[in-house]
TrEMBL record:
Keyword Signal found: yes
The name this protein goes by in its record: Uncharacterized protein
Source organism (scientific name): Ardenticatena maritima
Record carries keyword Ligase: no
Recorded superkingdom: Bacteria
Alphabetic keyword roster: Signal
Lineage summary: Bacteria, Bacillati, Chloroflexota, Ardenticatenia, Ardenticatenales
InterPro entries xref list: GH, Glyco_hydro_b
Endpoints of the signal sequence: 1-28
GO biological process, one term: polysaccharide catabolic process
Alphabetical list of PANTHER family matching this protein: ALPHA-L-ARABINOFURANOSIDASE C, ALPHA-L-ARABINOFURANOSIDASE C-RELATED
Length: 451
């Protein structure tokens, strides 16, 4: 039986216990960490404008996207050696084209490659060893000479466009390619192997090269040799589409640059699916035409082809391609208008590199939804922000430019069009949100230096 006194004491104990329990809990909010402040949202791109956000880094641009094919079948004229030095070419694919599968490389050929590499300011050399009518042992002998001379050659490939070989299907090529690769790696495990170097890959199974049994060259190569390859490589020349349609119209050529927005992502996914790896991609031969043509409205030596290339190169940079080797460094007109250099003068595509060599090595966000307009932006080592705008439209376009964090700035302007060969023109004052004038069929480089 509880007495009143016991009931009182019992109540005191309960209250005391409840108070102690309450005191053992932290007061709400007293020891909570301070809330993380919400980031200030970046402005969203306005429609029908150019939008640049230099605060969003999209990674490092490979220095080897400014490459070219070079071989013993080319010669850099004495009168153009200074232009070659100033070309901005950073990577050399040697010996270029199918020459390497019809000739055996001699020591003096390799010596010549290294001399040109030095002339171009230390352009990274790569060598494609002969595959047809050759052996893994002969490939290793080429590597042995390179090593004995102390030449630094890291990038190697085996053969050229096997998808065009007579008497080869994917199974035979993949088996023999593997024997070459294993021998070369045994000699030097540090080499970087590129392949399969097939022709006309587009990421479309309906048109991609197949062997006589209907097997896709790229897919079969990745299945068979995906464990040995370091960089997945291919070639692309979109025109002519047939010999009955030998020349593209300007509209056809300029619209074609957009295909790269499909080709590269499709190949990346195919590589992941078939190898389980994310491998770098190289486009080791590329130009507007595969035929030996020149002096046409859109042939490789034309202004239109240069305008096309300015946009293609920007898209390849945007897709984070590791190596791009334009075809070619030099050719006389007698064998086609391919080369950046001719016999006595440079061709229009040369000037594309005069702009891009000022671009920078850190890609930042840039986009536009204006038809036939492309925008690519980068940050340079000196802190400058650069913007390349390619206008594939015939008419000038007046477009608002929005640069996040830049209210007003003075920009250098470099212009490539029919009247200007990548020349510096009058500087402009850029005000974020205000319109800029982009000339028709032109490439404009803006350079904004840090204050």
């Amino acid at each position: 039986m509880f007495t009143k006194k016991r009931m009182f004491l019992h109540g005191v104990v309960i209250v005391f216990a409840l108070l102690c329990a309450a005191c053992s809990q932290p007061l709400a909010g007293l020891n909570d960490p301070p809330p993380t402040p919400s980031p200030t949202p970046w402005p969203t791109p306005a429609p029908q404008s150019i939008y640049v956000n230099p605060h969003i880094s999209l990674g490092t641009i490979s220095p080897y996207v400014y490459g070219a094919n070079y071989g013993p079948w080319m010669s850099i004229p004495l009168a153009l050696q200074e232009e070659a030095r100033q070309s901005g070419i950073t990577f050399l694919r040697f010996p270029g084209g199918n020459w390497g599968d019809t000739h055996t490389l001699k020591p003096y050929h390799i010596d010549g490659l290294m001399m040109v590499s030095e002339m171009l300011g230390g352009a990274e050399p790569s060598i494609s060893v002969r595959f047809l009518d050759s052996t893994p042992e002969e490939a290793v002998e080429v590597m042995r000479y390179v090593k004995e001379q102390g030449y630094q050659v890291r990038y190697w490939s085996i053969g050229n466009e096997p998808s065009l070989y007579d008497e080869y299907d994917t199974e035979r090529f993949n088996r023999e390619w593997r024997a070459f690769a294993e021998a070369m790696r045994a000699f030097d495990p540090d080499i970087v192997l590129m392949g399969p170097e097939i022709h006309q890959y587009t990421g479309n199974p309906a048109t991609d090269p197949r062997d006589a049994q209907g097997r896709l060259w790229m897919e079969e190569f990745l299945r068979a040799n995906g464990d040995l390859i370091d960089i997945v490589s291919f070639h692309r020349y979109p025109f002519p589409r047939s010999m009955t349609d030998p020349e593209a119209t300007p509209d056809e050529l300029l619209a074609n640059s957009e295909e790269w927005d499909h080709i590269i992502p499709t190949l990346r996914q195919t590589v992941r699916d078939l190898t389980g790896r994310d491998l770098p991609i190289a486009v080791t031969e590329v130009n507007s035409y595969w035929s030996n043509t020149s002096s046409g409205e859109t042939t490789p030596d034309s202004f239109y082809s240069a305008l096309w290339w300015a946009d293609v190169l920007g898209r390849l940079i945007r897709e984070d391609v590791e190596i791009v080797a334009y075809f070619a460094l030099q050719t006389p007109t007698s064998i086609g208008g391919y080369g950046l250099l001719a016999r006595t003068d440079v061709r229009p595509t040369y000037y594309v590199y005069q702009l891009y060599k000022q671009f920078g090595d850190e890609r930042v966000q840039a986009e536009t939804d204006v038809p036939r307009l492309s925008a690519y932006a980068a940050r340079r080592a000196d802190g400058a922000l650069t913007l390349i705008v390619v206008n594939r439209a015939a008419d000038a376009q007046r477009v608002p430019l929005q640069i996040v964090g830049v209210e007003q700035a003075t920009a250098e302007v470099w212009l490539f069009d029919r009247a200007h060969t990548a020349e510096q023109v009058a500087s402009v004052t850029l005000q974020s949100g205000q319109a800029v004038d982009i000339p028709g069929e032109a490439v404009v480089l803006y350079v904004i230096h840090p204050e």
